[in-house]
Amino acid sequence: MTSSQYQSSNRHAGNNQQTTCLVLLVKDSINLLPEFIAHHSHLFDQIHIIDHNSSFDLAVVANSQIYVYRAQVHSYFQEEFTNTVIRHLLKTNLLDWLFVLDVDEFLPFKNRLVFNNFLETHKSDRIITFNWRNGAPCDFDTNEDHRGVSDSKELIFYKLKSPTVKCAVNVNKVGRNFYIPQGNHQVDTWSKSYRSLWKRSTTLKATNTELEIFHILSGSLEDFEFKIKNFKSSRRVFDGVKGIGGSMIYQYPDHVDKLAWLTHTANYRVGDPNKHPKVSRDDFLQLFDFKHCDPDYIANLRRNLLDHPCEPLTGPSDQELKIVNLKKQFGQKTRMLAHFQLDVHTKSITTQPNPTNKTPSNS
């Protein structure tokens, strides 16, 4: 079933309100963030944004629904940032569902009623998953300053969904003893081994919803090249960390030919970068747009962000490098949450100079 078919079949369904919470980790992304907020604010009770060292003060988008925490850390500790905020939410909020998304991912629901009814159909599932459907603006070769994805003539998506999935957690079923590893492609819980006091992780079984997440790779070809370069740069810090994932990014070229752009879009992180070798415009469909969002609201958000530049950190601290070295020694599966702290008063995430638990832990 496609998302459009699902929306149509549930248009007149009943309303069973679920308390929903969304966590987003983002850096800059001025061409996507206003659209992300405009779309998902229709669906969620709370949106918690982790601002990873952006060049703009993302706190200007905060309101009674949207919370922003700035990670005062240069290195991309995606897993640690995300789970630090999640642990705070689980302690302080009553919620039914928790979603973790990237700024280029858009859920296939355009109003709260359809979203609520969807969640109601999955109330007995612990974890649900959505598959990526990779896409891009049709006029991807146009590069204008501060242009957003909603300014495109249309968005086009590859005809086949990607095998990459993203998870959502039914907190009522899972409880609060869970952990989301790098990328949110699975959800782990913890159980004690009967032979020792060490805790070990167990990946929770997930139910695939057969729906897609619309994955808009970038606003333009130039933005895509910047995205690849930035990902490679942030990933190199963690080279040598066992189990970190993401090494596939090194297979992507720094410069993408205009004629090859759609091929790269179709093959982005599908396992084999040459899985779909012959791709044309006819292989892409118009499946999602922002017509349900207020264009003035999006434009004002983008303008407000651009009016509030700030100075990002230029390099990792000694404490960050110590944590990276610990990850290289013990592996990605070893949890490093004790080395990070969230200050709810200053709305910031920082490294913990003297963590109570100085040794990496699996709990």
Protein model, in words:
The chain is of the alpha/beta class. It is 25% helix and 22% strand. The chain has 9 helices and 15 strands. Strands 1, 2, 3, 4, 5, 6, 7, 8, 12, 13, 14 and 15 form a 12-stranded mixed β-sheet that branches. The protein has a 3-stranded antiparallel β-sheet with strand order 9-10-11, with no helix packed on it. The chain is globular, with a radius of gyration of 20 Å.
Mean pLDDT: 88
Q: Beta-strand percentage?
A: 15-25%
Broad structural category: alpha/beta
Instruction: Give the beta-strand count.
Output: 15
Q: Which outline best applies? A: globular
Multimerization status: single chain
What is the helical fraction, as a range of percent? 25-40%
SSE layout:
Blueprint: H1 3-9, E1 20-26, H2 33-40, E2 46-52, E3 66-71, H3 78-92, E4 97-101, E5 105-106, H4 112-121, E6 127-137, E7 155-158, E8 165-170, H5 171-174, E9 178-179, E10 188-192, E11 199-203, E12 206-216, H6 221-236, H7 261-267, E13 284-285, H8 295-306, H9 318-330, E14 340-343, E15 348-351
Parallel strand pairs: 1-2, 1-4, 2-3, 3-15, 6-12
Antiparallel strand pairs: 4-8, 5-12, 6-7, 6-8, 7-13, 9-10, 10-11, 14-15
Q: In short, what is this structure?
A:
The chain is of the alpha/beta class and 363 residues long. It contains nine helices and 15 strands.
Keywords:
22% strand, single chain, globular, 15 strands, three-stranded antiparallel beta sheet, 363 residues, twelve-stranded mixed beta sheet, alpha/beta
